[in-house]
Design brief:
- With 545 residues, this protein is of the alpha/beta class.
- It folds into three domains: 26-190, Rossmann fold (3-Layer(aba) Sandwich); 223-438, ANL, N-terminal domain (Rossmann fold, 3-Layer(aba) Sandwich), CATH 3.40.50; 442-544, GMP Synthetase, Chain A, domain 3 (2-Layer Sandwich).
- 34% of the residues lie in helices and 24% in strands.
- The protein contains 19 helices and 27 strands.
- The strands form seven sheets. The chain has a nine-stranded mixed β-sheet, with helices on both faces. Strands 4-3-5-8-9 form a five-stranded parallel β-sheet, sandwiched between helices.
- A hairpin with a 2-residue loop joins strand 1 (42-46) and strand 2.
- Helix 3 crosses helix 4.
- The model has no long low-confidence stretch (mean pLDDT 95).
- Belongs to the ATP-dependent AMP-binding enzyme family.
- Pfam families: AMP-binding (PF00501), AMP-binding_C (PF13193).
- Residues 34-403 form the AMP-dependent synthetase/ligase domain.
């Protein structure tokens, strides 16, 4: 296994194989089985582009071959930072096919985060768009490449400068199909090897790298697809950021393609774009976050569209309130499937045959029978059903450690391999999990996770700031927004605009920026000298109201 990664103990790996949870197939092999089975059937739609399974397979193989010719080799790392579009899917599967490890970055990540990913992982390649949402990724890539000597290859989707490699030209270059097949046949990865890395929500200073193997990622995708009842008739619309683990394998586009269904990628997130595609493509499955649901329910535009094809609306990223679940079900006439998990390999989903109480209130239950969950108290004692404590989970697709992070792993995982979710939950007799609150200091802005520590560290560097705490304040649309509570040095003044201007120089993703500033004379403290964040949050909420 890639150095710096933690393998499953031998006895667990043996058990997962014997029980069929691990099939010893690579992600590419599972996709190829689907391609061979569904050949001429439509697989991928984006704007006017429509690809069959055979065509998709040929594009992936062509790109995988071209990556090899350029010099990429197994276990190299390549950061993919592409917006929603077919190029993401081509690049993702092409790299995986030849054993190169894609690191899935989000489009809003900026120089600070991307430089960290590249340096920390020893990345040799970087795939970007030319410009997206008015941001120049080429200019950023130049700066990053100058800072990282190991970064050899920058691939550009769109208009590429001569110093970088055009992804479009790689996809259009003349090829010999026989030579491609003979070459690719030499590059089958080990199913126990790391296939890709996803990024954590970021409760530490910067997002952590989560290594996912072929065996574990095939497992989670297949079991999630079974719960979602995916088959060749499934038609999924991709609206959320495609690089999120949620959109890749929970069940995600990967689950659709493994099942022979159709993936439709939306070019926009506005209601008209989404529901015109729902109507045109007869979409059956939507994966969304609560802020999107809230906007839909408030809109009068939906009456202009026929959305009767929708069978399931899957919600994730944050808990959807019971009353909103009921409203979605009534409005759309479909099943509302709450999902709760993380990129570390945790996935709970509500079953279609669940009780009414579980459908409206629970966060789902593990998708695989081999998943082990337990709720513990502050002393590590396991609690009975119905009592609230910290959720721990272990299973065939739950990682045993972050990449190259032994100190962090000692805190995030128990000695016997359970992952600490950092959430307070309770469990019922049927195994359904009920999320109560977070333990970790994390702000959930519409499904995007903001590390309090990361932003506090940056704000503290401002010369006018004496102390800072970042807290969450409620928001009707996003669920939570970040409020910076700041104590200033004597005689200083700081405006919200000045703070944001300072943070923008830190190359920070925009979704992480505080949206409120509260100047505090003295922070409320405990007797031991710790900031009472709960009290501080109460003050911030009161001021917001």
């Amino acid at each position: 296994m890639l150095q710096g990664c933690v393998p499953w103990p031998e006895e667990y790996a043996k058990y997962y194989r014997e029980q069929g949870y691990w099939e010893d197939k690579t992600l590419s092999e599972v996709l190829d089985l689907s391609i061979n089975k569904h050949g001429s059937k439509e697989a991928l739609v984006f704007n006017k582009m429509r690809l069959s399974y055979t065509q998709l397979g040929e594009i992936i193989d062509r790109l995988a071959y071209q990556f090899l010719q350029i010099g990429l080799k197994p276990l190299d790392r390549v950061v993919i930072q592409l917006p929603n579009g077919p190029e993401f899917i081509y690049s993702y599967f092409a790299l995986i096919k030849i054993g190169v490890i894609p690191i899935l970055a989000l489009a809003p990540h900026r120089k600070g985060e991307i430089s960290h990913f590249i340096k920390f992982s020893g990345t040799v390649g970087y795939i970007i768009p030319d410009i997206y949402r008015k941001f120049n990724y080429i200019a950023m890539a130049r700066e990053i490449k100058n800072l990282n000597q190991k970064l050899k290859y920058v691939f550009v989707s769109g208009s590429s400068p001569s110093e970088f490699i055009s992804l479009n030209k790689l996809l259009e270059a003349p090829i010999d199909k026989k030579e491609i097949q003979e070459t690719l046949a030499k590059y089958r990865p080990d199913p126990d090897e790391v296939a890709l890395m996803v990024l954590s929500g970021g409760t530490t200073a910067l997002p952590k790298m989560i290594p996912r193997t072929h065996n574990d990622y095939v497992c989670i995708t297949k079991y999630a697809s079974r719960v979602g009842r995916f088959d060749e008739h499934t038609r999924m619309l991709v609206t959320l950021p495609i690089a999120h683990n949620y959109m890749v394998c929970s069940p995600g586009f990967q689950g659709v393609l493994f099942s022979g269904g159709k993936v439709v990628i939306s070019p926009g997130t506005d209601i008209n774009t989404i529901f015109s595609l729902v109507e045109k493509e007869q979409i059956t499955f939507l994966s969304v976050a609560p802020p999107i649901i809230t906007n839909w329910l408030k809109s009068n535009i939906l009456s202009h569209y026929n959305y009767s094809s929708i069978k399931v609306v899957q919600t994730g990223g944050a808990r959807l309130a019971p009353e909103l679940r009921a409203q979605v079900r009534e409005r759309f006439g479909c099943f509302v499937m709450e999902s709760y998990g993380s990129g570390e390999g945790v996935l709970n989903m509500v079953r279609l045959d669940a009780s009414e109480h579980a459908i409206l209130n629970s966060s789902g239950k593990p998708v695989c029978p081999a998943d082990e969950t337990k709720i513990i108290d502050e002393n590590g004692n396991e609690l009975p059903d119905g009592e609230t404590g910290e959720l721990l989970i272990r299973g065939p697709y739950t990682i045993r450690g972050y990449y190259n992070s032994p100190a962090l792993n000692a805190v995030a995982f128990t000695p016997d391999g359970f992952y600490r979710m950092g959430d307070r939950c309770r469990k019922d007799k049927d195994g359904y999990i009920y999320f109560e609150s977070r333990i970790k200091e994390l702000i959930n802005r519409g499904g995007e996770k903001i590390s309090c520590e990361e932003i506090e560290t940056l704000i503290f560097a401002h010369p006018k700031v004496k102390a800072v705490c970042l807290v969450a304040v409620p928001d009707e649309v996003y669920g939570e927004k970040a409020c910076a509570c700041v104590q200033l040095n004597p005689g200083e003044e700081l405006s919200f605009e000045e703070l944001i201007k300072f943070l923008m120089t830190c190359n920070l993703a925009k979704f992480k920026l505080p949206e409120k500033l509260l100047i505090i004379d003295e922070f409320p403290m405990t007797a031991s000298g710790k900031v009472l964040k709960r009290k501080l949050k109460e003050i911030a909420v009161e001021q917001s109201n």
